[in-house]
Structures are given as structure tokens and as C-alpha cells.
From TrEMBL:
InterPro entries: Cro/C1-type_HTH (IPR001387), Lambda_DNA-bd_dom_sf (IPR010982)
Protein's name in the database: XRE family transcriptional regulator
Gene Ontology molecular function: any one: DNA binding
Listed PROSITE patterns: HTH_CROC1
Ranges in a coiled coil: none
Organism: Leptospira bouyouniensis
Domain HTH cro/C1-type, chain residue ranges per copy: 14-69
Gene3D superfamilies linked: lambda repressor-like DNA-binding domains
A UniProt-annotated Pfam family: HTH_3
Length: 72
């Protein structure tokens, strides 16, 4: 698998989990672990090489394990 494909799959996982939890992108830009909307858009589109800090913040917001995000 190419790295670009890996990023796209992670972004797809995040989008799927976010929608299952009933969140929009703006919802993750608030609270104790904010992820800026623009950053989330780039991650979900597979255009951003996300950091472990972003994975941690997104997992906290979605109340999932980080492995649920990066398991492709």
C-alpha cells in the first residue's frame, strides 16, 4: 500500500466514525481537545500527514481508541 492510500484510509475511518457518532467537523473544534476544522478537512480528505497528537485528540472527541482510527 502506498503512503497516500494509507492516509486516505485513515481519513475515511475518521469520517465514518465521526458521522456514526453524529458529529460534524465543527464539533471537533471545541472542548478540551480541539482539532481545527481546516485540519480535520485535510485529514479526512487524505491530504494531511496527521500527527499522533491529532489522532489522540480525535479519538478523545469520538470516544474511541486510537487503534480504531489507524486500523486499515
Amino acid at each position: 500500500m502506498k503512503f497516500e492510500d494509507f492516509l486516505i484510509k485513515i481519513g475515511s475511518n475518521i469520517r465514518k466514525l465521526r458521522l456514526q457518532k453524529g458529529f460534524n467537523q465543527e464539533d471537533l473544534d471545541s472542548g478540551d481537545y480541539p482539532v481545527p476544522v481546516r485540519t480535520l478537512q485535510e485529514i479526512e480528505a487524505g491530504r494531511a500527514n496527521l500527527t499522533m497528537k491529532s489522532v489522540y485528540k480525535i479519538a478523545k472527541h469520538l470516544k474511541v481508541q486510537p487503534k480504531d482510527i489507524i486500523d486499515v
